[in-house]
């Protein structure tokens, strides 16, 4: 009974972390982490990476992740890979990142599979190989992992590693979109707008652009602005067009910024 009472302290520490009671989480999780428990080490790594209740220190986070990763704990392997990909807390090393993603992927981690697929797609830390990108994205996508569904859908749109197929692209992107993957929502909106892989539907396009725009996705914000400017699926409104284009521009979307400059130059909207 003593063991189970002690183990319960880990669960209470995990729950405290979820409740953002960081002082209690640290008190309960640290003994487990120091004792070598991989899930506790991973949670402490998260706390140090984010600065939750402790001074933010990604080097300490990496150390905790490594301890857990070396015990074959897949979430820690992914987290350590992400640090190597970004060079946070460790020297940037795309090859090591790919190695850790692979270890997690081989254990069935959808996050590891998706990240490894991305490495193959862009040729980071591994040779660029679209077929393997598709392979790993599919493994994660078939587990219902939204980002991987978005990624494999994008490859079908572009015909990379698979024959170009807008219908299959729409199917995967739609699966991701309903999970609130903003980029997928934008792409689904675009496919409805253009009638690619699905029946053309301005109202559906507008709906998906609105969902993505609310999540801060700049391309969706730009597309909303253009729909208002052209009066497509909505009542034409230069003011609403300018509103959405400005949001997209403020989020770094250069085509939106250019569109605003052209509209201002033509006297359609006031200069900003």
From TrEMBL:
It holds the Pfam family Sel1. InterPro entries: Sel1-like (IPR006597), Sel1_AlgK (IPR050767), TPR-like_helical_dom_sf (IPR011990). This is Sel1 repeat family protein. It comes from Phyllobacterium brassicacearum.
